[in-house]
């Protein structure tokens, strides 16, 4: 686990390497990417829930057909 001193050292090094303006742009880009990912996850869940509701409420939903063919006879195992 990183302590407070290590985090400060990493921040100072990043500040020296990238500069304040570039570091600000990197932070905002990273924040936008995380927000986009969260929004996409919520949209995916919403679509999946809508599809599940549609399947449950569908009056045209048919039961599985358990008809099997054995030799020349057809039997229905309902």
How much helix is in the residues? 55-70%
The rounded distance between the terminal residues' Cα atoms is 61 Å
Beta-strand level of the residues, as a percent range? 5-15%
Shape: elongated
Q: Which residues form runs of ≥5 with pLDDT under 50?
A: none
Instruction: Spell the H/E element sequence.
Output: HHEE
Tell me about the biggest sheet? 2 strands, antiparallel
Spatial arrangement of strands, main beta sheet? 1-2
Chain-averaged pLDDT: 81
- Contiguous helical run count: 2
Radius of gyration, rounded? 29 Å
User: Structural class of the helices, strands and pairings?
Assistant: mainly alpha
Total strands: the figure is 2
Describe this structure in words.
By secondary structure, this protein is mainly alpha-helical. It has a domain at 19-52. Helix content is 68%, strand content 10%. The chain has helices spanning 4-18, 20-57, and strands at 67-70, 73-76. The N and C termini lie far apart (61 Å). The relative contact order is 0.05.
């Amino acid at each position: 686990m990183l302590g407070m001193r290590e985090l400060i050292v990493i921040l100072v090094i990043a500040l020296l390497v990238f500069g304040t303006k570039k570091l600000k742009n990197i932070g905002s880009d990273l924040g936008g990417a995380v927000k986009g990912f969260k929004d996409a996850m919520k949209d995916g869940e919403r679509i999946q829930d809508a599809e599940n509701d549609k399947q449950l409420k569908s009056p045209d939903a048919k039961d599985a057909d358990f008809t099997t063919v054995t030799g020349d006879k057809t039997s229905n195992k309902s």
